[in-house]
Amino acid sequence: MTNGIVCRTSSPVLIGRAAELRALARAAAAPPAVLMLEGEAGVGKTRLVSELVTRPETARHRVLLGCCQPLREPFPYGVVIEALRGVDGVPAGPLSPLTGALAPYLPELTHLPEPPPPLGDPRADRHRLFRAVRALLDALGPVLLVVEDVHWADDGSRHLLRFLMGDPPPGLSLLLSYRGEEVPGGLPLGSAYRPAPGSASVFVRLAPLDRDGVRQLTGALLGTPAVSAEFAARLHERTAGLPFAVEETVHALRDPEGAVQADGAAARRLLDAVEVPSLLRDTIVERLTALPLAARRITEAAAVLAEPAPLDLLTKISGLAPARARHALVRALDRAILVETADCHYGFRHTLAQQAVYDTLAGPDRQELHRRAVRLLRDRDPAPLVRLAEHCRKAGDPAGALRYGEAAADQAGAMGDLAAAIDLLRTALAGQDLTPSDVDRLAVKLSTVACNGLSQRDVVTTLERLLSDERLSGRLSGEVRLTLGLMLIRQAGSLEAARVEIELAIAALGDRPALAGRGMAVLAQPWVSDTPLAEHRRWMDRVDELIAAASSAGDHGRALTLMANNVASRLHTGDAHAWAMLAAAPVRVGTAEEQRQLARLHCNVADACSWIGHHQRAERLLRSGMRLAADCGAPYVVGTARSTGVHTDWLTGNWAGLDERAEALIEEYRDLLPVTSELSLILGLLSAARGAWDRAAEHFAATAVDQPGNAFTPVVIAAHGGIAAMLLAQDSVETAVTQVDRGLELLRTKGVWAWAGDLLPVAADAYCLGGRANAARALLGEFEREISTLDAPMAHAALAACRGIVAAHHGELPDAVKSFDDARGQYERLPAPYHAALASERLAHCRLRQGDPAAAATFTELAEVFDGLGAARDAARCRHAYRSTGAVTPSRRGRRGYGDELSPRERDVARLLAEGHTNREIAEVLFLSRRTVEQHVASVLRKLKVRSRGELAASR
Length: 956
Prior knowledge:
- By secondary structure, the protein is mainly alpha-helical.
- It is 62% helix and 4% strand.
- The strands form 2 sheets. It has a 5-stranded parallel β-sheet, with helices on both faces. Strands 6-7 form a two-stranded antiparallel sheet.
- It is flat and about 115 Å long.
């Protein structure tokens, strides 16, 4: 029985309160007990109580609820009497005559004895009433008496509660909740509480949620895990982690599902536009109006400043005399409407409280306070430019807002904080009183910093608006359009639009060859969309001419900017001449901008190396490029480089923690298609190697594999190979052939055969298994011709593997053995240990078919290699192959016992269980019998101390 306890929050799960709930439940289960629950308004006390009464520990308890009210009626003991009115099923047997004293208060309880005559002494009558309450509670058996909001309790109720706490009935668990900030001296019952002998007690102070808790709560409210870290951080800042404020704010968003994926600047704008929840606003305004006039003035000054400030600044803004201001601040702190956020700095508990007070100010009063703030802050050294811009804007001074905002953007850009610079410039461009020269100047600055930052969608919106702004001069429209194209090329679904914008920009930039060259260098990049290589090469040749001209003119910065794209573009195609171009690049540069371009050159070339098979060079260039980028403030370069690092680690076998890194980077750079698509590919390949087919399919789909015109071609070609390999592993040969055909169609359209290494071996395998052996042999010949002159080590290793696959299918075992051995060696030299192990596995099968008895042992060795990488599916396949030979596994006496730890095989089973796989599916993935899987499942659940698969999934 919960007696009407209602939780207002709509979150389906309790977030961040597990320890507190366990503490309360343990104490409530062992009466007599007193449970004290302290927490500020909106922190979730009522929700926690509602969870408590549904716990198994309180199942036997009769739950009685009383809630104190802020407007106290002249009815002593009212909250306890209210709780007792909820009693039903009072024993029909005799009750203590004492309980009759409650009859006048509880006429609903018809089984109470007749009321005794008055004693003639109010104190004696009160004591008898207290004893009557105790006797009734004792007769009811195990009782959980909940009294909420004790800070509003009347004195009579406080005395009664202290009486019950001093001599509780044996079956009573008494829970009192209250707001510590509204209790004088921190004593909810007016005096210190000491537990009665033999009774248990627990004190729980409920703290606000941290950022992760806010993120989890937001996801639970909306039923989605896709809540960005930036949105959660801003929401935490705005609500101080109060669950009620979080819920109200999330539900007040116009598009909550879209908003929770916003980046930092966008999240701040979206949340700032949300009105203060009405219940929270009413609470804050009630406290404000209860303050003396001077305390209200000091609080209003704090609301206008909108950040913690010292007393002297609050005094000057409020216009109060120093002594009066000091006294006023003390009153505001006593009422907890202001708090000391740092040493001698005072502000609000959270942004919503500040906004609620700010909204009470009349417009003229608000403007005057902002003007005072400008006068007081502008002479500080250094001047708080961002704050001054905001105060000018709210004081009705657009010129001042532009002056300070633009200076703040310049300062942020110089310090490498490009996100802040972009946001400030966008805000400045949104002003309605800008002159054409203002628009031109700000547009150039935004175009300069946007491409180096991570801000994406909001910048695109601003650039599109600028192009339709009549105040923007025609001579700058090409530059703005070029920036728009460069931003669109990073955005999912916008690559075709990006090419159109860049081509238009190049046409408009005929008299500005440096900017036009940047556009050409992007159109030369072969990895963008399904544009044929011939078109890219036309642009590459033009860019090479521009590089030569810039170098001849001594414009080394411009030459380096173009080289940063074109060297990598040529390497992607397998053009060995690109190495000479790289060698001609400077080692040292003189300016921060040149250093950014040198960082781009190193990182872009590292990316090309990872795709064509120069893995060691990729690692070296990546290290130098990231160091250069970090030193000069180039976050976009750092983001793409980190993605390349994940790709390189996949190739070179450094898989430990790789999926966690990739997922974290996708979260961090979710709006940057070049980053997210490559990371999704790696996650798909990792999942496939572990046999997690459904998860792998989701990741492959996120590469835009079905939209080659709006995707990054090498990623999509590799995704086709990964999907086809996964389908072959599940014996879906026909579907795999279809997938291969799609990948080959894109490869032939594009013409960059240096990227074929992840697709061609799978294609040869699928064709052979699908009865298209002649097509496989024809493909082999085509592949050999296309890469014969290319510097593409990965493709050449894949060619050797393809030769082995075709030869093995036709029973040409000596040729197959030679080819697979060649492929293994080439992969090892790259290095690409996973690919080398796959070639070794095929080699072992061929030797086994030749009658080589020693080949069987190779499978156990390869299983260890795959296990070391984390490729559980491949390791299981090799063990199955070894068992299929009939060989006897050597005894491993003395091998380690795992005790309560999971064995490697149990870890594989646990992972697949947590992903929702059935025993049958696990058996298929790991090549085990269902009986063996059942035993592993039982062992996993026992060792992890969970009762079910669902609990295991939730715990992981």
